[in-house]
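ok new one. same drill as before - structure tokens go in, u give me an amino acid for every spot. 50 of them this time. try not to just spam alanines like last time pls lmao
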């Protein structure tokens, strides 16, 4: 999912919907959310014994 968000951010930047500063700030967020979700997934799997 984060890949789709990043892709759409690149499109928004390319068509000048986002400034460089906005793009630079926003492009980091999907990666951070992906890491958080990955950690949560691992924690849940560990708790249920997978």
């Amino acid at each position: 999912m984060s890949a789709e968000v990043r892709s759409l951010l690149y499109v928004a930047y390319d068509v000048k919907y986002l400034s460089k500063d906005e793009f630079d700030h926003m492009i980091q967020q999907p990666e951070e959310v992906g890491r958080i979700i990955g950690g949560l997934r691992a924690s849940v799997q560990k708790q249920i014994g997978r």
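The two ends are 23 Å apart (CA to CA). and btw The chain has a mean pLDDT of 92.
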